[in-house]
């Protein structure tokens, strides 16, 4: 039986690891909070490890979905990191959204140890993870990707190789840049409709059938209009992602004026106490100017 390890059981990793188990893989999980790992084991079976290295031992594939660049380094390169325990030919797949520089660094390190590496950030949010409908954008060598694609399909609706190591993270940056601008436009549109005394539901019902349509519009307008922002992808994480985008743009010469402004707007939301609110909470900022 193919053995998989999953490091990080947050709102994304928990269901992703669950889909691996339901697909019939032998799964071992690691989480910094052991109680979360025990909860996962009670629901899905499998094994629990007390360190990333223990989880990675004898695994064919090691998946990780943690928080930031430094967290990825901790679970890979530290004394108890996965790198030092993986068997030759095994593959490490990082689903964390990180800098492309870190992906390239890890790709080089893992390759030098005879291991495969894929940077594979995801899109689809908590709902996508829970429903096994994530979009995965992957960077890495084609043979490593071909060997791993079917495993990732356990929790995804789309898995695509975008180029060499780092290309997955760069593609995720494009995704976040587009979402940031879209959400600000949607927030302003709803705010305008409310100020104009229009029926927001009726407005969205009409314009969502035309060129303004988007996933965010169809799935977030109702909760936005009601001032509900206690779900979905948090503002704190979006600002982390946008900081990565802006740093990369500084290096490659891309101009991101709207992204820079929206990042500042999310800073305003944080100042209003909304760091853990959903990213659609840009509407709340407009109501409190």
Verbal overview:
- It is globular and about 65 Å long.
- The protein starts with a strand and ends with a helix.
- With 289 residues, it is an alpha/beta fold.
- It folds into two domains: 3-163, NAD(P)-binding Rossmann-like Domain (Rossmann fold), CATH 3.40.50; 170-287, N-(1-d-carboxylethyl)-l-norvaline Dehydrogenase, domain 2 (Orthogonal Bundle), CATH 1.10.1040.10.
- It is built from 13 helices and nine strands.
- The longest helix has 29 residues, at 167-195.
- The strands form two sheets. A six-stranded parallel beta sheet has the order 3-2-1-4-5-6, sandwiched between helices.
- Strand 4 (61-64), helix 4 (69-76) and strand 5 (91-94) form a beta-alpha-beta unit.
- The model has no long low-confidence stretch (mean pLDDT 97).
- The chain has helices at residues 13-22, 34-44, 52-56, 69-76, 100-112, 125-130, 142-152, 167-195, 200-207, 215-225, 235-252, 257-271, 282-287, and strands at 3-7, 26-30, 47-48, 61-64, 91-94, 116-119, 122-123, 134-139, 156-163.
């Amino acid at each position: 039986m193919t053995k998989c390890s999953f490091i990080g059981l947050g709102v994304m990793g928990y269901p992703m690891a669950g889909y691996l188990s339901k697909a019939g893989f032998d799964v071992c999980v690691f989480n910094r909070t052991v109680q979360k790992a025990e909860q996962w084991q009670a629901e899905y079976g499998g094994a629990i490890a007390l360190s990333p290295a223990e989880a990675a031992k004898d695994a064919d594939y090691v998946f990780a979905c943690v928080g930031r660049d430094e967290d990825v380094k901790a679970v890979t390169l530290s004394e108890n990191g996965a790198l030092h325990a993986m068997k030759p030919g095994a593959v490490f797949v990082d689903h964390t959204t990180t800098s492309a520089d870190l992906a390239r660094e890890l790709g080089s390190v893992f390759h030098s140890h005879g291991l495969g590496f894929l940077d594979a950030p995801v899109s689809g949010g908590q709902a996508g993870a829970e429903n096994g409908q994530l979009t995965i954008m992957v960077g890495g060598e084609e043979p490593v990707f071909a060997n791993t694609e079917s495993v990732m399909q356990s929790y995804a609706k789309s898995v695509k190789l975008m180029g060499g190591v780092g290309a997955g993270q760069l593609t995720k940056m494009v995704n976040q840049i587009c979402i940031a601008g879209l959400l600000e436009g949607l927030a302003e549109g709803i705010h305008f409709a409310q100020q104009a005394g229009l029926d927001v539901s009726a407005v969205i019902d009409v314009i969502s059938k035309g060129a303004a349509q988007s996933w965010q519009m169809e799935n977030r307008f109702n909760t936005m209009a009601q001032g509900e922002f206690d779900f979905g992808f948090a503002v704190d994480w979006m600002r982390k992602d946008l900081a990565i985008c802006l740093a990369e743009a500084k290096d490659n010469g891309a101009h991101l004026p709207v992204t820079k402004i929206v990042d500042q707007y999310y800073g305003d939301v944080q100042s209003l106490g909304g760091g853990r609110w959903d990213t659609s909470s840009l509407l709340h900022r407009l109501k409190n100017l």
